[in-house]
């Protein structure tokens, strides 16, 4: 009697385990076949957010790729001033950072906002290799301009853009970094959901790249109520970069108050001032660019 009483429970346990195993297999299959959709959800950006023409204070740059035209916006600064490259998150387009670009430009900096393939006005499909290659080409084009050629380079990444910045920093020989709500890597983010890391085709291992660099001023901005990027990820970026860690109140995409926004902006300005003042010294100390 006791044995038959336990049997239904055993069946329920096996059914539950089987259901969990099925869900995990489906998750793995979705990761294999649909991961670009999850990592680069460009479909979330409403068309009206990039319907406006190029603003009057912006110069349109275009890159011819094997998948079509990829645009970037360039805001000129003062001759000899530094270049800030703004790398956006995975749920917006370059238009979302126009105010940031104008704020940096008002301080005299040249500003570049490269679009990611498949986002907004850009042709093609996003991927780690395509995005990083395109950004490098845009940066090299702007650095070839006479007013920018000898300027220090700062990469400002927001969310997944921080991972792009981290991967590109040693390749471009960046003089400074602003990493805003940064994941340590997409592979680690996936493992939070029990997805095997080796299945991720776009790992964007920012922490690994940053650990290979030395003497590059870095600001790591964390939002205390960030529900997307765990604090442990941010701490790994801080440890890998040796950067200044500033925490403000707010969710992943928001500030809790104008005071928090102002604190973040002040920290960014201080980083830019530091790089601008020490550009020559930093250029000789920064890690040399990696090979392709």
Could you give a short description of this structure?
The chain is α/β, with parallel strands linked by helices. The chain has helices at 2-39, 98-106, 128-143, 160-172, 186-191, 206-211, 231-241, 258-277, 279-285; strands at residues 59-65, 68-75, 83-87, 110-114, 153-158, 176-180, 218-223, 244-248.
Secondary-structure map:
Elements lengths: L1 H38 L19 E7 L2 E8 L7 E5 L10 H9 L3 E5 L13 H16 L9 E6 L1 H13 L3 E5 L5 H6 L14 H6 L6 E6 L7 H11 L2 E5 L9 H20 L1 H7 L7
Parallel strand pairs: 3-4, 3-5, 5-6, 6-7, 7-8
Antiparallel strand pairs: 1-2, 2-4
Helix pairs in contact: 3-4
Can you walk me through this structure?
43% of the residues lie in helices and 16% in strands. It has 9 helices and 8 strands. It is an alpha/beta fold and 292 residues long. The chain folds into 2 domains: 1-39; 44-285, Alpha/Beta hydrolase fold, catalytic domain (Rossmann fold, 3-Layer(aba) Sandwich). Helix 3 crosses helix 4 (160-172). The model is unreliable at 280-292 (pLDDT under 50).
